[in-house]
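Exercise 7 asks you to align residues with tokens for two separate proteins.
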Amino acid sequence: MPTTTTSRALVGVVLMAHVFLCTAYVGGDGFSVEFIHRDSVMSPYRDPSLSAHARVLEATLRAAALSRSYARADAPSADCAVSELTSRPFEYLMAVNVGTPPTRMLAIADTGSDLVWLNCSNGAGDPGLAAARHAHAHAPAPAPAPVSAPPPGVQFNSANSTMFGLVSCGTAACRALPDASCADSKCRYLYSYGDGSQTSGLLSTETFTFANDQGTRSGDRTMRVANVNFGCSTTMIGSFIGDGLVGLGGGDLSLVNQLGADTSLGRRFSYCLVPYSINASSVLNFGPRAAVTEPGAATTPLIPSEVKAYYTVDLRSVKIGNKTLAAPQQSTVIVDSGTTLTYLAKELVDPLVKELTRRVKLPRVPSPEELLPLCFDVSGAREGQVAAMIPDVTLELGGGAAVTLKTENTFLEVQEGTLCLAVVVPSGQFPPMSIIGNIAQQNMHVGYDLDKGTVTFAAADCAAAPSPSPSPSGSLYI
């Protein structure tokens, strides 16, 4: 029977959220959690044998290998229908506390998809989950997918929680999935990605808790949100890391929309991404704390997208100094924290490379792995000298917003002495679609307000941003 899957790909943007936090602040102005890059010192997926430059190159290779395909998946199997989803390299994680009592899990945080799902146990304590796993075991095998080998993860055992529930077919939450199916009158899903990765299980509800230090300090304030819809996944196949995924996209099932519907926080969140070179975690904010108030903040309206999860804005032109490169007619760009590189149309990248080549007085060198369109030899440059030699690049967006990209937003040192442009043309399976990736968003406070329908950008020192910290004691139940 046809099953579902919703749109993720994220372009884009790997964020999550139920109850999570390595560290968190909860108060009347909202709450904040740590936003952990997979290669940071706080991540269990960091490879300590790699140098800083090697980690940057690995991130670039992931972007090339798992870049979004935006292609429709293969024909549906006899067991389920597959809707349009895309692959992506998952770059950011956040801790999640789910259940009563809570189980702490480390999940992918994704601004480019909607569904929140967690790795559930084998379902021995719940006949419905056990049936879902049994049915999947007899379904046709999916196409091969890249498989990582992360450390053993945490599984959520629904039998240990007093508040766990299964969602029935025909409910609004079940209808929010593109192609939901029924399993013993319960809402079953299959979420597939363009690289062949899949997750499947039953749509469920649980209590998510936001608290400092995982809510273990009796004096710290906690915020509990009941009846959060999430996928209790019994099968994961492919390139996933972590214990699940928190969708922060624009669709109905995303954490952002659910918090907006069930709390007074509104449908808004923001993050400030620390540069790859700094060993510190970034910050993810919800509610009033997500307001972007730094000087020079630029706001652009969100525009409708074929994929509801994507945060899409109008790209008018790209400017370098006094040189303006007009974007193709009706050009849109997706803002996504889960994509490493920035992808722009060939009509923009080719003249951008030409203009940078003319302006930057450094020797050109080949790109490692032939991944990037323009590389310079900076081995002879003094510290601080390179940034002064590379001009700013400004993205001119709808509504008159202008977002200035500094050297750290447009170039990566992928190996010692080799600096490469982190802006490329979508390749292979890409359609003519553009993405502002996380390199371009480093040291920016980026705020999404779904109630107002806007995205706001402001330059910021993200390493100096306030870290999530304890709040007054007490509890808030929603």
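Second protein for Exercise 7:
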Amino acid sequence: MSEAVRVLVADDQALLRGSFRVLVDNEPGFTVVGEAATGAQAVDLAHEKLPDVVLMDVRMPEMDGIEATRRICGATGTAGVRVLMLTMFDLDSYV
């Protein structure tokens, strides 16, 4: 049996984080290793927990998801982490 895909959920809304946690944890082969409410927390937790994937909200306090993604993917220790950006905003600039 292979190891589960390790997921970090980063969203400033607790209800959405909790919903994503339930969805991910109930999917065979996936597990949530942490939750972040800010972009800065996402960066710190990515370095601490070394997830395989980060579900990253675009707009968060302290540091937006775009900058947090740059810091996660650009750092030596977390360069292999993949980030899936999430947004409810329909703005071409975020794409």
